[in-house]
Amino acid sequence: MNITSLQFGLYRDGDNNLDVVQSPVIDQAFRVSAQDASIAINVEDTTARRDFVPEHGARTESYEIRGGAVVDGRVTVDDPHDPSSRANLAAFVNATLDAAERNGAKET
Taking the model in full, what pTM does it have? Predict the structure, then answer.
């Protein structure tokens, strides 16, 4: 296990007309974690910008980034979540806090 000094949560609703404009924040997360492997980022991205599902449909991608890469290459792809749902946001916050605990993060 890598030492995590800082655990971020990145909850992105890109399933709209701003999907491409907002997408650089994902690229930035990969760059930041590549520069400092002690930074981990838990991501939930509702998007339609890449080709993970047929016909370029919307979906929610969930994964953790560390060292500039997806941890263990694991990306979970689900039907699109409603990012404005309190229950979905609460589940994401809980997942981020669980990741911070699992990673031994000093800050979240």
Answer: 0.85
Whole-angstrom Cα Rg for the chain? 14
Would you list the domain boundaries of the chain? 6-103
Q: Give the C-alpha separation, 104 to 61, whole Å.
A: 24
Report the pLDDT value the prediction gives residue 84, as an integer from 0 to 100: 86
3-state secondary structure the chain: CCCCCEEEEEEEECCCCCHHHHCHHHHHHHHHHHHCCCEEEEEEEEECCCCCCHHHCCEEEEEEEECCEEHHHCCEEECCCCCCCHHHHHHHHHHHHHHHHHHCCCEC
User: Biggest alpha carbon distance in the chain?
Assistant: 42
Tokens describing residue 21? 């404009």
Determine the Cα–Cα distance for residues 71 and 75; give it in Å rounded to an integer. 9
Residue indicated by tokens 């953790």: 64
Length of the chain: 108
